[in-house]
Design a protein that fits this description.
The complex is a heterodimer of chains A (130) and B (110). Chain A is mostly beta strands and 130 residues long. In chain A, 5% of the residues lie in helices and 46% in strands. In chain A, strands 2, 4, 5, 6, 9, 10 and 11 form a 7-stranded mixed sheet that branches. A 4-stranded antiparallel sheet of chain A has the order 1-3-8-7, with no helix packed on it. Chain A is globular, with a radius of gyration of 14 Å. In chain B, the strands form 2 sheets. In chain B, strands 1, 3, 4, 7, 8 and 9 form a 6-stranded mixed sheet that branches. Chain B is globular and about 40 Å long. Chain B is mainly β. Chain B starts with 8 loop residues before the first strand and ends with a strand. Classes of the chains: A mainly beta (130), B mainly beta (110).
Chain lengths: 130, 110
């Protein structure tokens, strides 16, 4: 069974740091793009960051650039989100997701970042408050 | 305000058809695949449509997706009470180099 399990969510003070983890199972982890998405209280879904199969290509939403870092450890089938300089507006439910796969290997290597999220975890809560 | 525009709400009686629109631009919907998700807050979003109109395994054929130019739509036919949820379109934007979600549409079954 394909599964993603997030962990690491907590209550943290403004300016603090937190590292989220996402443990993957049931699929060949190092073949897929991976993504973090969040939902703030009362708001819609917001894409945060994604990372390619070997971790060499990453993209971020503007509001987290310079503060958040997405990474992965393919030997541990795990995705991470290091969050620094946290702000109240980072308070949200954070989901990790596995990318959709389409086309040939060469197509996926070139355009995988444009394929959406196919499998989602249950999420973990981050609260930034003093 | 989202770059992708969805109506905030839609409703219909059981058995009716509801259509949710998603308006974007040439840098996003116009040139890339659109995905649709069903979501109840606090739970894992459920993919409903991949690559404009492909249903993932397990999604009933009451759900259908389409794309034309810089807009996309999701139709739900034979509306059922369990369809009450928030629905989001999502697409990559070539100009911003980010993924975009629409603002979400809350579907109510009357």
């Amino acid at each position: 069974e394909v599964q993603l399990v997030e962990s690491g969510g907590a209550l943290v003070q403004p300016g603090g740091s937190l590292r989220l983890s996402c443990a993957a199972s049931g699929f060949i982890f190092n073949k897929y793009w991976m993504t973090w998405v969040r939902q703030a209280p009362g708001k819609g879904l917001e894409w945060v960051a994604n990372i390619n199969e070997d971790g060499s290509e990453k993209y971020y939403v503007d509001s987290v650039k310079g503060r958040f870092t997405v990474s992965r450890d393919n030997t541990k089938n795990s995705l991470y989100l290091q969050m620094n300089s946290l702000r109240a507006e980072d308070t949200a439910f954070y989901y990790c997701a596995r990318g959709d796969y389409f086309g040939s290997e060469s197509y996926y290597r070139r355009w995988g970042h444009k394929l959406g999220m196919a499998v989602w975890g249950q999420g973990t809560t981050v609260t930034v408050s003093s | 305000q989202s770059v992708l525009t969805q109506p905030p709400s839609a409703s219909g009686a059981p058995g009716q058809r509801v259509t949710i629109s998603c308006f974007g631009s040439s840098s996003n919907i116009g040139g890339n695949f659109v995905y649709w998700y069903q979501h109840l807050p606090g739970t894992a979003p459920k993919p409903l449509m991949y690559r404009n109109s492909q249903r993932p395994s397990g999604v009933p054929d009451r759900f259908s997706g389409s794309k034309s130019g810089s807009s996309a739509s999701l139709a739900i036919s034979g509306l059922r009470s369990e369809d009450e949820a928030d629905y989001y379109c999502a697409v990559w934007d070539d100009s911003l180099s980010t993924w975009l979600f629409g603002g979400g549409t809350k579907v109510t079954v009357l």
